[in-house]
Amino acid sequence: MSLTELSEYTATEDDERERLAAEDGLAPGSPELEAKLAEFRTRMAEYRRHRLHPKLPARKVLAFYPMSKRRAAGDNWYTLDFGERKRLMAGHARVGRTYRGRVLQLITGSVGLDDWEWGVTLLADDPKAVRDIVYEMRFDEVSARFGDFGPFVTGLVMEPAALMTHVGLL
Q1: What is residue 170's predicted lDDT score, i.e. its pLDDT?
Q2: What would the pLDDT profile of 102-135 be if each residue is shown by its tens digit?
Q3: How far apart are CA 56 and CA 106, in angstroms?
Q4: DSSP collapsed to 3 states, the chain
Q5: In this structure, are residues 56 and 106 in contact, taking their beta carbons and an 8 Å threshold?
Q6: Which is catalytic among the residues 9, 47, 65, 78?
Q7: Is 9 one of the annotated active-site residues of the chain?
Q8: Which segments of the chain have a pLDDT < 50?
């Protein structure tokens, strides 16, 4: 069991302001910076709406797995300071965003509701896209060093009549 929630690692307006200054050289208070921050606020409002009230489109493949952050000696996620965890999660998210349009990812929280901390739901039309994102993410430090994963459940989504035809019963 898990619930939709906002991530504590989501970039804030202050984070974006610092990024724009460092990467784009935009001066504090400049019209260019303020315009970019206005775009950021609009984008983040849409992100928050989607995270809390997702509209899941019909896709042919659905995969789900539970996960938690590791607490092993030397690889204990929660002994890292928040800034380091946030930096690592930003890199992890960059990998996930490369699958935009091919894989819809829904991350839900289950701390206090289940043995696992999160649920990950992946939706795609191509099973290879699900395989590719899971494969690539396993090399990301957040997953490789700090991720513990439960069983993966993967299935095809289809209308009952199509399923009956698919398995040869019609």
Answers
A1: 86
A2: 999 999 999 888 899 999 999 999 999 999 999 9
A3: 9
A4: CCEECCCCCCCCHHHHHHHHHHHHCCCCCCHHHHHHHHHHHHHHHHHHHHHHCCCCCCCCEEEEEEEEECEECCEEHHHCCHHHHHHHHHHHHHHHHCCCCCEEEEEEECECCECCCEEEEEEECCHHHHHHHHHHHCCCHHHHHHEEECCCEEEECCCHHHHHHHCCCC
A5: yes
A6: 65
A7: no
A8: none
Query: Domain coordinates of the chain in residue numbers?
Result: 1-55, 57-170
What does the block give as tokens for 28?
Answer: 């504090």
Confidence (pLDDT) at 136:
96
Instruction: For residue 120, give the amino acid letter.
Output: V
Q: Which CATH class is domain 57-170?
A: alpha beta
What tokens were used for 1?
């069991």
